[in-house]
């Protein structure tokens, strides 16, 4: 009996591993195909040489194309294939809402966590980096400053859409909705080792794919935060709301000194933020598990 049970567990484990590997390969295949289409369209689009304001407009169109083609279409296709009723919103757990109080708590946690994120960024910058990485980061920052130049209310709406709404929706569907769920499999225990591995592995990949290593640690920590909130709430809309909040605040405060709160002489604010955020997560965890 013990031999049969051990054999059954081993066979079950191998079946789960096989399914995970197949899903990863399918996801990567769909992602590669969509990326090829995006690259071809981008090459055609960028063949037109633009300068000044036209260049910024061109970059914004490229942002839209890249987000939709790389991070929105692949998870929808994969979720459609994997859901038994071909309802991608159900596989991605976007058909499930959450109580309004959970949304308020999640958004509040994200706002309170911002000085802690800045503290992690400050610690990240203390790690020695190649000069090429620093130069690339500065170049990206200069381009983003031009991207975030807002002269009219229409510019504000466009930037909110491209930098807050679109990345929050598309990136959460790709990383938490697809990759994290593939790695987690059918695990139902949100405190199991497999769940923690899935959350942190997804957070590391989420941070690395941005190719901005001076902000690797804070982005990884935010990815883990989104991952746990997704698992605890059971709704992808919770991390989407948090991701949107973080990016929207960045749009409105891009030319202020708010992004220095929690670093250097204000490091104590970062520590306080980390403590309050941890308490908020504990309350959120207990609230979701009580419900």
Global structural class: mainly alpha
The amount of helix comes to over 70%
- Cα(first) to Cα(last) distance is 39 Å
Q: Profile the largest sheet.
A: none
Order of helices and strands: HHHHHHHHHH
| Radius of gyration from the alpha-carbon trace, in angstroms | 21 Å
Strand content: under 5%
Shape, per Cα inertia axes:
globular
Number of domains: 1
Which consecutive residue ranges, at least 5 long each, have pLDDT under 50?
none
Count of DSSP H/I helices: 10
What is the β-strand count? 0
Return the average pLDDT rounded to an integer.
87
Topology overview:
Blueprint: H1 2-46, H2 53-82, H3 88-91, H4 100-125, H5 131-147, H6 153-184, H7 193-208, H8 216-233, H9 237-252, H10 267-290
Helix pairs in contact: 1-2, 1-6, 2-6, 4-8, 4-9, 4-10, 6-7, 6-9, 7-8, 8-9
Task: Provide a brief overview of the structure.
The protein has 291 residues and is mainly alpha-helical.
């Amino acid at each position: 009996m013990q031999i049969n049970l051990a054999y059954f567990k081993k066979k079950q484990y191998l079946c789960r591993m096989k399914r995970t590997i197949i899903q990863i390969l399918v996801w990567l295949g769909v992602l590669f195909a969509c990326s090829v289409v995006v690259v071809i369209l981008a090459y055609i689009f960028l063949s037109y040489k633009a300068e000044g304001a036209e260049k910024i407009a061109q970059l914004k169109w490229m942002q839209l194309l890249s987000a939709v083609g790389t991070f929105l279409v692949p998870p929808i296709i994969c979720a459609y294939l994997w859901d038994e009723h071909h309802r991608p919103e159900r596989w991605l757990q976007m058909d499930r809402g959450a109580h309004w109080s959970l949304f308020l708590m999640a958004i509040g946690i994200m706002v309170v966590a911002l000085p802690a994120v800045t503290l992690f960024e400050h610690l990240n910058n203390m790690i020695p980096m190649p000069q090429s990485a620093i130069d690339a980061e500065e170049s990206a920052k200069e381009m983003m400053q031009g991207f975030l130049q807002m002269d009219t209310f229409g510019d504000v709406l466009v930037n909110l859409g491209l930098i807050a709404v679109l990345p929050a929706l598309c990136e959460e569907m790709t990383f938490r909705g697809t990759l994290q769920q593939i790695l987690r499999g059918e695990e139902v225990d949100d405190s199991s080792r497999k769940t923690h591995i899935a959350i942190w592995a997804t957070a590391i990949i989420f941070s690395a794919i941005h190719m901005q290593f001076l902000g690797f640690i804070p982005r990884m920590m935010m990815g883990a935060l989104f991952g746990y909130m997704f698992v605890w709430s059971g709704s992808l809309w919770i991390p989407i709301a948090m991701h949107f909040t973080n990016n929207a605040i960045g749009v409105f405060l891009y030319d202020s000194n708010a992004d220095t709160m929690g670093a250097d002489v204000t490091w104590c604010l970062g520590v306080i933020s980390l403590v309050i955020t941890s308490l908020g997560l504990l309350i959120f965890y207990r609230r979701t598990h009580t419900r």
